[in-house]
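A reminder from the course coordinator: this example appears on the midterm review sheet, so study it carefully.

Given structure:
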């Protein structure tokens, strides 16, 4: 049984982490919930008991074995090393340590072995990367991926409670014939719109979200030769990110072979019956832990390329589920290291 702390307990991802720990019957001896001063004092119901969210302080980690953290990167940079020094292993959902060579970046369906080399912090990848690499891994093992061209259709829940509220309030105002409230979380109105910007722009014209997909994919797959060409779009969908993906492979690839590989791959569900109009939809993948693929088809011009559509719940597999799965991998290690 482990002593667990959930940091960022009042946020959109923290809320799902709390539900998942119960659903998956994580072996918890004791648990505490931590958040910023602003959210401290709110309550959380866990295992039928009501807990008060405590303020995040350096002392809060004494005696804690596993920290599941979902905070802004700046908060994680300050507190995750403190928790690790206090003897806990931190599973960190922020971008703070993802590209640190001493910090494993783990998707359990892809590189569970990397958990064992942790030094107190394990990074949880970005949501848009997680679902893509779950689908890419079996193809890479069989056909060796050279290049990936991906366009994302990302839900507002990826921007947290404020993102969800912004879509809902703008939509309600529109339906009521009122002026929509001005955007604050997003750069432009998100209701009835698509925004080709997630996170800030870098000098090369890409956004930080797009570069995360490039660098994190290579690190998780353990292959610096994979080229990723991303375009990340925010769409007016409440939950579940969708991705249109083209993979180019070293060896010729077919939809039939990909379907077979995916059918037996962990964490993946193929939904691909165009005649019956069956393909993955954000509306039907919400609240599920798997990655869904469909619209699988050959590149019309290249026998070494395949196109498909990929949908997953960004709050679950893209964040909380992946973090809890990492914690479950930790439990499989030598107990003294957890
Ligand atoms: C988003 N990828 O969807 C981010 C969340 N980590 O905004």
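Designed residues:
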């Amino acid at each position: 049984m482990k002593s667990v702390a959930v940091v960022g307990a009042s946020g959109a991802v923290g809320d799902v982490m709390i539900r998942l720990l119960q659903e998956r019957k994580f072996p918890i001896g004791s648990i505490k919930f931590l958040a910023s001063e602003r959210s401290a004092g709110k309550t959380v119901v866990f295992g039928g008991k009501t807990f008060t969210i405590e303020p995040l302080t350096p002392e809060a980690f004494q005696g804690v074995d596993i920290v599941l953290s979902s905070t802004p990167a700046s908060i994680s940079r300050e507190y995750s090393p403190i928790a690790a020094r206090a003897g806990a292993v931190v599973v960190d959902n922020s971008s703070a340590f993802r590209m640190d060579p001493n910090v494993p970046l783990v998707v359990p369906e892809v590189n569970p072995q990397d958990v064992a080399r942790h030094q107190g912090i394990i990074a949880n990848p970005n949501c848009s990367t997680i679902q893509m690499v779950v689908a890419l891994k079996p193809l890479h093992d069989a056909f060796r991926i050279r290049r990936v061209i991906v366009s994302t259709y990302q839900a507002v829940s990826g921007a947290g409670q404020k993102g969800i509220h912004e879509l809902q309030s703008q939509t309600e105002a529109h339906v009521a014939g009122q002026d929509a409230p001005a955007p604050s979380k997003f750069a432009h109105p998100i209701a009835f719109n698509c925004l080709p910007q997630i996170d800030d722009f870098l000098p090369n014209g890409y956004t930080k979200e797009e570069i995360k997909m490039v660098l994190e994919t290579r690190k998780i797959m353990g292959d610096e030769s994979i080229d990723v060409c991303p375009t990340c779009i925010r769409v007016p969908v409440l939950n579940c990110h969708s991705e249109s993906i083209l993979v180019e492979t070293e060896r010729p690839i077919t939809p039939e072979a990909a379907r077979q590989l995916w059918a037996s791959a962990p964490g993946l569900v193929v939904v691909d019956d165009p005649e019956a109009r069956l393909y993955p939809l954000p509306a039907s993948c919400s609240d599920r832990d798997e990655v869904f693929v469909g619209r699988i088809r050959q590149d019309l011009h290249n026998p070494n390329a395949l196109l498909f559509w990929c949908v997953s719940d960004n709050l679950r597999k893209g964040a909380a589920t992946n973090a809890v799965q990492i914690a479950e991998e930790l439990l499989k290690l030598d107990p003294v290291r957890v």
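The CA atoms of residues 218 and 224 lie 5 Å apart. The longest strand covers residues 145-154.
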